[in-house]
Fold each of these.
Amino acid sequence: MNEKMRTVLCPRCGKSVVWSQANTFRPFCSERCKMIDLGAWAAEEYNLIAEEDQPLSEETNSTQH
């Protein structure tokens, strides 16, 4: 295998991680970082920005019946 291994940064600690099937915690570097990140979501430390002022599209309205 002469393919160059793709690496990403762990979203929790910033460590360089090889993106492969062998890394069961990807994109995290370890189970510890994965669980810390999950805990942050559970504690509502992350927020997703929503634009509530805009009306729903026709497609969205028709699927909500």
Amino acid sequence: MVLLLISLVVISLYGVKFSHYNKDYMLPQNTNSIKGVFAILILLTHLRSYIEIPNINLNTDFEYILDRIGQLMVAVYFFYSGFGILESYKKNLNYEKTFFKRRILRTLYHFDIAVLLYVVLGFCISDVRPVLNYLTCWIGASSVGNSNWFIFVILILYVITIISFNIVKRRSVFIMCCSVTVFSVILWIFLRLYSAGFWWYDTLMTFSAGMWFSYYYNQINRLLSNRVWSNIIIVVISVIFAIHYHYHWVDVYGITACMFVYLIAAISTKVHIGNTILTWLGTNAFSIYILQRLPMNILRYFNVTDNYVLFTVLSIPMVLIMAHIYTLLLNKLDKYTVDL
């Protein structure tokens, strides 16, 4: 299994470019490649929950690496989403008027089409869930065999953003960032008290971290474009991240996650990963995330999980093919729905 991680490293290094300062480090062509790397890491993490991997050295190393990365795999998605939203808000005076349609409704129906597939599959393979699951699965509050918590949290963060739009009413971008941050802390507290597990809340503060990164974007770029300051920033963030990560304090894991995404952003100014494979993976990251358990659930039903090699060989290409088709479908639907 560790060969899968090695393959990902090789793919990531293909076409890598080093520079003093890559000014396009937060543009989609760069961030999509980073999303692509983490999309596969998430896929591999979910994959191993279906199979029993033989306890040999290389496989143990494989599981150790995934465990150490942990919830940080999803942090970049929150971060880039928060950054992109505030960038659009700063540039588009009418952005808040279309936000509900373009962010919340689009995310919901992109998600719910996949959820419907899981519901149908569940009945076909006798994987019947409690009635409450079928009532709440459409917003990601529960699962019908799919991955769900990330969608639920990002939808709530979008609602928080809309509330902040109405509070601020174009008075101040700074107040907008403050409002989202305060409501995000409240959400963190609520999920800390009532959610099913720590993964529901431990990285969500990276969403507001992305907004603050956008707010101070010009100042940050001036520092990162300076060779000395950029190196100092990378070292300082690395030390803070390492300290928090070493002690793994659950209640301040949000700081660890924020340091991680800031570190990714700072390193991106010097190391540009990008090729057609990573770009494709990043473009299809949402579809990979939401569809990955479909083929895995089917293969488990037919007891393919008994052979972990065969399960892996079959499930990964099935996920990628389904994700590609699903993304194409969503793109076509968007032209006739949300984009109208």
Amino acid sequence: MKWIVGLGNPGTKYASTRHNIGFMAIDTLAHRFGIDVKESKCKGLIGEGKIGSEKIVLIKPMTYMNLSGETVRGYMDYYKASLDDFIVLYDDMDTELGKVRLRYQGSAGGHNGIKSIIQHVGTQSFNRIRMGVSRPAPGRDIVDYVLQTFAKSEQEAVSQTIERTCDAVQFALDHTFEQTMAKFNG
């Protein structure tokens, strides 16, 4: 079983913002795999399905970004899920829009959703796909930037980021995360 958590903020106010690109990827995976992500459990929306012989669970925390770890911990405890089978998808300002970076450990890098997950699971070692949203121009407020919707001129790059993320998740269902990193980084 693989369980994939996309980070974002609930509500239509945040639906198309940079901070919600993780939710957008979950929605794309749900569409790609024919999974309904609407069951309310563990402070999140959950959908389950099978891809070949592999069970996959898609999760969108409904706690707001800064408390994402509550959903991750709740799911782990309730379902006895292993972090070895976990992949988190989230926005990353240090990665250029249109690109993704895969890692299996590291600090939160200033991302409050990842900080919350590290706090709740007690380790920095878990699989991540950092989805590029680029940095704001110097002097721009970071909070305003990540809670802003993408410009029309960025839509193609946003689609590339989401599709590449979903391709990496799909590849990871049948390969190790190290093999997935080798294929999708760079």
Amino acid sequence: MREIKQRLSAILGQDAETRACKYLQTQGLQLVIKNYRCRSGEIDLIMQDHHEWVFVEVKYRSRTHFGHPAEYFDTKKRRKFESAMFQYMQQKGLNPALVPHRIDLIAITGKHIQWIKQL
């Protein structure tokens, strides 16, 4: 039973990331890479909004009984996310002091998508 829940959770997560990506593309952002992984963590979506790099965390919950999806992007998760973001930028030769960038959050509850810019 536990294995089935884990597989379902992964499928729902992938679906949420796909929905978030499509939504952001309709808003004019361009996808660079999905699911960037490194030793420090993971970034769900890396996109570009004109000349600005956008690093996106996607959080999905079917209901809000246990809290809003955005609440699950806590301080510990953000630190890991930022570490992964800086590692990506370093790999690509992007200086964070010179290259415009931001962290956005897509919170999905059921069918509702909320885009929280510049966390």
